[in-house]
Amino acid sequence: MKNEKQRKTLGATQLDRRQFMRLTVMGAGATALLAACAVPTETPAGGDTGAAASGAGEAAAGGGTMVWLGHQEVASLSPDDDGPDIQYVMIRNIHSPVVYYNEFNEPEAVLADSYEVADDGLTYTFNLKQGVLFHDGKELTSADVKYTWDYYRNPDNAAVSVGDFEGVDSIDTPDDYTVVVNMSSVNAASLANWAEFCIVQSEYHAEIGEDAYKAAPIGTGPYKLKEWRAAEFTELEAFDDYFMGRPSIDVVRLDVVPEDSVRMIALQTGDADSSAWPLLVEDSLTLMDDPNFTVYSTPGNSIKHFPLNNTLPQLSDKMVRKALLHALDRQRIIDDLWSGTAQVAHSNISPSSYYYRDDLPQYEYDPEKAAAMLDEAGWTAGDDGIREKDGQKLSFTCTTITGDQARRPIAELVQLMLSEVGVDMQLAEAPVASILEGMRAGTMDASLFNWTYCTNAVEPDPFSTLHSDGGNNFCNFKNDRMDELIEQGLQIVDPAERKPLYDELQAIFVDEVPCLFLQFDNWLIPFSNRIQGLPVDPTASTSYYMRASTWTLSGNG
Amino acid sequence: MGRYIFVRVMQGIVVIFLISVLTFIIMRMMPGDPVYLLFGEGKVRITEEQMQAIRARWGLDQPYYVQYMVWARNMLTGDFGDSLIRTGTPVRQMIFEAIPVTLTLNLYAMLLALSISIPLGIWAGMRRNSFVDYFASIVSAMGIATPNFWLGLMLIVIFSLVLGLLPPFGLRSWQGYILPVIVLAAEQMAVVTRVMRSSTVEVLNEDYVRTARAKGLTERTVIIRHAVRNALLPVVTVIGFNIAFILSGTIVVETVFALPGIGRLFTDSVFRLDYQVVQSLFVLLAALVVVVNLLTDLLYALIDPRIRFD
User: Fold this and answer.
1) CA-based, 20 to 30 A from A416: which of A242, A252, A281, A532?
2) How close, in Å, is residue A61 to chain B by CA atoms?
3) Whether B114 contacts chain A with CB within 8 A
4) Angle of CA points A368, A372, A378, to nearest 5°
């Protein structure tokens, strides 16, 4: 009750300029402030500390405010910018996609009644639902779908999603409820990429333009934008005419709370109902044991890894890279530094994927074998204990992300493990933008971060990271057979036919060791049990937030 | 006086110009490319043409001197440009949304700090080596030594988690101001108490205080009319100095308490290489420091009639 009341009181007092002036005048003396400090004990907001108590006055069915927490600002609300998870949960509640992969990694039609993929993979036909309304009251038609996809795939509009529409040639709208996409070349990742792209209201978007749209979106989603303050909060309110029925919860708000431990406290005090960005692992484990919370643990798709610059003379030999992996006790890293909430990686593709291959050779922890392999490759210990070959030291620098307190200890432990086999890894720090560019450009030796080496749990394509032309080829990895397999894999739509190609692709990845792959982290997301109707044991992360329209809050009936 | 102010303003303009050039150079020298950050991990294909299109849209494909000229010209007309990361949002809007938050926090923090530390400092100065003096020394040593970050988290744990009295973060109610203001005030309070104490001690040994006492004035009058006014001078210097450093203190507090102020805008923008935001903030802050320094110097003349600027 306390929190409900607090939220209601607080909702009325947000800091705008007028408020600021008033506050400043009001508090012109320190005595006023000191007096103010004593007040909370007398107000209803602070008077009742029983967080779980529910008041009789709030027994009405439905309603309430659900608060989620993010770690960084919501920079944009355009579907073009739904890459970062935090924006995703807001954008996907404002907009709807035509189809998408749900929290169990199954394709699900949203704006479409049905869809059909031609056998040759060159035509996609979507039959749209009728009577779907945008937040401005206009009905969704095929023109909106065509407009959206055409706009964001047009290179002239400088959208970041252009690459997702690879292979799309033209889009036809034979009638108001049918969309036909003609492909110039097969792109097996189509459904996972462009078909998931959220639809905007075409006339509105064309009128105000993309820049203005980022702050004032109009979609067909269950919630419409109420107020957006990028660095503070994003507040959505229920859309009465949502085509799948008005959501029960009136308001959904995402508060920006950068500090991990403060997000944890806000969940415990009841000031928030979920943290859309993971807490510290120890805190997540604490909440797992707390009967007031449900913590989803879904296998992540991204690998925590050390990308290595494969063009450096000391790292270009795959024997060396294999030896490095044998020198790492990866289970110990998970147990000691990640509270056991991860699994050792044995492939580039996530174990939860259909394409995952579990019969590949595994790199067990064996420092002696590592040393022997390095000897064999011609790297012998120099005077200082560091191996060298032809005057080149087996030494490189790993640049971790500035302030990354979670992963830095891993780099330190790995430094120790590598030094035991005569390999010298120096540590440095740099902001993430510098690292991403440095690794892509090959001006940095190594780093440590999480990144996906397949598209996601349903789509195995690793073009961007493992193809020699890939935009995120951090390892500067170049393997002709790998390039061929990636290109061929995208030409086949049928999963059973595709699988053999990805089997071979994973074998190459494991044999070449382009990066030191450590582990697939579990994605731990906490929900307060105040929320009713949560999905049971989802297998995909983040997408369960798209179910928000079906949830209710207890204490609100 | 008028001439003095004119010279100082001219100096200030030169300083601001140099800062703007330096900031521009430093930002461009930082390794990394902000355009990369626009792509989330989910974006599978990134081609060079695509990168170029985005660079062109933001004018990042122009030579550096052209970029600087465009920016400087726009700044002069009050147009701070658009944020690259918060795509398309005018930088001016971002800054003017953040300023009230930081300013309010610091105003309250300073009022709180002064209202406690000035009396405490005077008291400690009057009763040297007494219990009060030791108490004030210990408290101010702790205030200086305690990291803001730790103090903030501890206050959240005590007042939000354990006692349930105050919200753990944000400014959705006036209660949200209390904890961050206390944290900010703690450090300032410590500094001001020490300065006030030592300058009180010094002033009390001055001849004119002895004269005042010899005249038979009450101790109360001696302290308030003769001692305090003179002892305040160094405190004004410290406060002026602190205003210039407001930003460094609020970065931590704004991050811990999730407040959308200038400090967080600044760090976020530096880490994400949001050139326009960082450059504009630097220039505005330089202007603030110049103005505050000038005002501090002028304030001396008000407090100490011996100081003249002619």
Assistant:
1) A281
2) 26
3) yes
4) 150
A-B C-beta contacts closer than 8 Å: 233
CB contact under 8 A, A255 and B170: yes
pLDDT in tens, B77-112: 888 888 887 777 888 888 888 888 888 898 899 899
Is B164 in contact with A232 (Cβ distance < 8 A)? no
Nearest to A265 among B49, B161, B272 (CB): B161
Domains of chain A: 38-273+530-556 (3.40.190.10), 299-521 (3.10.105.10)
Of B65, B91, B117, the residue that ends a domain is: B91
Q: How far apart are CA A481 and CA A498, in angstroms?
A: 16
Q: Supply the ipTM of this predicted assembly.
A: 0.84
For chain A, say whether B150 makes contact (Cβ under 8 Å): no
What end-to-end distance do the CA atoms of chain A give, in Å? 13
Q: The tokens of B181 are what?
A: 């203001």
B224 and B193, same structural domain?
Answer: yes
* Same domain, residue pair B265 and B228: yes
- Taking an 8 Å cut-off on Cβ atoms, the answer to whether B112 and A268 are in contact is no
Higher pLDDT pick, A284 / A23: A284
DSSP assignment letter at B42: T
| Residue-level pLDDT, tens digit, chain B, 310 residues | 678 888 888 998 999 999 999 999 988 888 777 877 777 655 556 677 777 888 888 888 888 889 898 888 888 888 888 888 777 788 888 888 888 888 889 889 989 999 998 889 888 888 888 888 898 888 888 888 888 889 999 999 999 999 989 999 988 888 889 999 999 998 888 888 988 898 888 888 888 888 888 888 888 888 877 788 888 888 888 887 777 667 666 888 999 999 998 888 988 888 888 888 999 988 888 888 888 888 888 887 777 777 766 5
Same domain, B83 and B105: no
A557 touching B (Cβ < 8 Å): no
Residue B216, both tokens: 């038979």
- Domains in chain B, number: 2
> Residue B213: its pLDDT value, please?
83
**A265 interfacial to chain B (CB closer than 8 Å):** yes
Question: The domain that contains B254 carries what CATH number?
Answer: 1.10.3720.10
Domain boundary among B72, B91, B110: B91
Question: Both B56 and B195 in a single domain?
Answer: no
Q: Do B87 and B101 have their domain in common?
A: no
Q: Could you give the 3-state DSSP secondary structure of residue A451?
A: strand
Range of the domain at B243: 97-271
- Test A75 with B174 for CB contact under 8 angstroms: no
B160 to chain A: closest CA residue: A269
Is B276 within the bounds of a domain?
Answer: no
Is there a contact between B172 and A269 if contact means CB atoms under 8 Å apart? no
Contact list in A for residue B47 (CB cut-off 8 A) is: 162-163, 471
Query: What's the token pair of residue B95?
Result: 């800054």
**Residue A506, exposed/middle/buried by CB under 10 A (0-12, 13-18, 19+)?**
buried
Spatial separation of the C-alpha atoms in residues B64 and B67, rounded to whole Å = 5
CA distance B187 to B116: 12
Res A432: pLDDT: 82
Q: Distance, in angstroms, between A345 CA and closest chain B CA?
A: 19
B85 at interface of A, judged by CB pairs closer than 8 A: yes
Q: Would you call A158 an interface residue with chain B, using a CB distance cutoff of 8 Å?
A: yes
- Cβ-Cβ contacts under 8 Å, B250 against chain A: none
Do B75 and B152 fall within a single domain? no
Q: Tell me: do B20 and B38 sit in the same domain.
A: yes
| Structure tokens that stand for A108 in this block | 């699900």
Q: Which residues contact B155 (CB under 8 A, 6 or more apart)?
A: B179, B182, B183
Task: Flag whether residue B3 sits within 8 Å of chain A, measured between CB atoms.
Answer: no
Number of alpha helices (DSSP H) and beta strands (DSSP E) in chain A: 17, 23
| pTM for this entry | 0.82
Report B:194-253 residues touching A (Cβ under 8 A): none
What element of type H or E holds A476? none
Confidence band, pLDDT 50/70/90 cuts, at residue A417? very high
Q: How many residues does chain A have?
A: 557
